[in-house]
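Lecture notes, part 5. Sequence design as translation. It can be helpful to think of inverse folding as translation between two languages: the language of shapes and the language of residues. The source text, in structure tokens, appears below.
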């Protein structure tokens, strides 16, 4: 799986900024995370990680579990949901987008694997 291609698609098709795309991919592929983990993994300040995670809640990418813990929803649902919200914000007609659909398909297995692994 080419995460850089998926990251590019998130930026180009869903209009996430680069750090939002990286954070979305991180939590989707690794599982529920605290803001301090997100900050550490992405090499960004805690406050920036919190802002990005909260932004992804608004954009439809994350669920806020606590004030500082975030989880991604299933990627097939999430990719289309974020695309739908972007279309609404940008006043673009929402229609089927194969690139967006493929984001969800590509992330489905790593999403499931991150949530079913034994610890």
């Amino acid at each position: 799986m080419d995460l850089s291609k998926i990251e590019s698609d998130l930026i180009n098709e869903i209009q996430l900024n680069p750090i939002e795309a990286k954070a979305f991919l991180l939590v989707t592929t690794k599982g529920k995370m605290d803001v301090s983990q997100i900050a550490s993994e992405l090499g960004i300040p805690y406050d920036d990680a919190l802002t990005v995670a909260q932004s992804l809640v608004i954009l439809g990418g994350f669920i806020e579990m606590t004030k500082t813990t975030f989880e991604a929803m299933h990627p097939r649902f999430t990719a289309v949901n974020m695309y739908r919200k972007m279309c609404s914000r940008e006043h673009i007609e929402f229609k089927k987008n194969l690139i967006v659909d493929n984001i969800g398909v590509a992330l489905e297995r790593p999403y499931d694997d991150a949530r079913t692994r034994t610890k």
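The translated text above is only one of many valid answers, since several sequences can fold into similar shapes. Strands lie at 33-34, 62-64, 69-72.
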